[in-house]
Request: fold
Amino acid sequence: MLSAKIKDKYELVVGLEVHAQLLTKSKMYATDSTEFGNMPNTQVSVLTLGHPGTLPKVNRRAVEFAIKMGLACNSTITRKNIFARKNYFYPDLPKGYQITQDKGPICVGGEVPVTLSDGSKRSIALTRIHMEEDAGKSMHLAGEVDTLVDFNRAGVPLIEIVSEPDIRSSEEAYAYLVEIKKLVKYLDICDGNMEEGSLRCDANISVMLKGAKEYGKKVEVKNMNSFRNVARAIEHEFERQVAMVEEGVEIISETRTFDAATGLTASMRTKEDLNDYRYFPEPDLSPVVVSEEWLESIKVAMPSLPRELHHKFVNEFGLPEYDAGVLTDSKEIARYFEKLCKKTKNYKAASNWMMGPVKSYLNELTLHIEDFPVTPEQLAALIALIDEGKVNFSVASQKIYPELLKNANKSPLQIAQELNLIQESDEGSLKPIVESVLAENEAKVAEYKSGKKGLMGMFMGQVMKKSQGKADPKVATKLLSEILDN
Amino acid sequence: MKVDLNTVKKMAHLARLEFDETGAEKIKNDMSQILDWVDQLNEVDTEGIEPLTTMSSEVNVLRADEVGEHLAHDKALSNAPQKDSDYFRVPKVLE
Reply:
């Protein structure tokens, strides 16, 4: 382990390449299904298998999905798109080339805003987002002499989101990935599942002395199947590279693989020692031209983005940053909350209900908000019951809410009435209860009057007990103090 | 344009081709000739002309995102030099 003092001399420089599988029904250039998890080599066609004489044809929706991501990241959308062949021989690539974009990616520039744990905000600059196709899946099984190849995945549409070398800590990398995942899920263009490989990340990592003008030699790390592992790989590479520089050992630009078991990276010894992809324009595809009308139609169909909702929740609803963060974590939660806020104006109470009782119910049963039995209307009605002083929060959350979950057809008011929970806020009916409590506790009343003000809580408890929890605490307190303090 | 033997070796590696010394010599000469011939294009002044990427003047030849016919599984595997009932089999890529 390096001392903090040594590490402090260096700056970490990271750029991330994220591949996102697009949620189209069919592949990028062929009509094969993209469905996940079927029998191997059943979702293939002559095109996917690279048979001679076959011609690709671009999936319109995949182009639209790429544009959506670009719009969400404030990228410039390229109006005339051409495709390129990236040539290399590998068993998972039957054509011998991948159809991708080289010069003129569909989205140029842009940024992804991130918030770090200390509350500070940064924007990570993007280089580009381009469209391409996935390769097949190779399996290298232990004890097997061959590599097995499944081409169901070959040709599935991907976008590759390339960041500038703009990331300065593993925490920033993590936050960036969380944001990318949130964006693709809000846009409904990728399911964001890193474990299943629908979101994949490679990291270009280098170190340099603080204040240096030139970046160090970069190392590309692959094979990290979770956000946490990306952060771990970055932390390890920083240590490894700083130690090398300190010892005067030259860092070589190479591809390394991350081992989740050890947290270490190791050089990948591949037979392909020189990468020369010999890009050239794909002659089988005509250009894709994004007209003003087409772009406009995609713009108007864009859903609200997490940062827009976050802004709305903070500025229009007056919620704390923390609440807005939790409520925009997923599109579905945010959507439910928006509906709820159309029915109630008590936004903070609505937020508390979402972050408290609603979330804990969903977590407990591992449900999604789509399966939540209580409608926004009912939850708003429950909040109204509290605001009107008919029930207090603990009765609402502990007695009415569980009933509502079991019986979503009833209104909160109905349940409150049936269970006889409507709060007694009528002074006339509460006064006898207060008086009898005080009459039964003469000694305590004397103590209170001689200065033991803490006894108020005990009197309240008795009133609550006698009223079977229905006494409105505000009215009861008022009545108690009127009698005791006079 | 003269092609040297190293270029031939590099191209052969990238294309996964193998040939012996005499073969390499022949290929080297062929490649040189081909490049010389194509080199004639350099005589044309292309200043200010947009690169041609496709022979067709069409744009936006797109298709709707719909699933079409798949190749039957046994047919898909039928041309493979090595296969089993599910997979294409290739020499082991990773150790």
Chain A touches chain B through 53 residues (CB under 8 Å). Residues 4-294 of chain A form one domain.
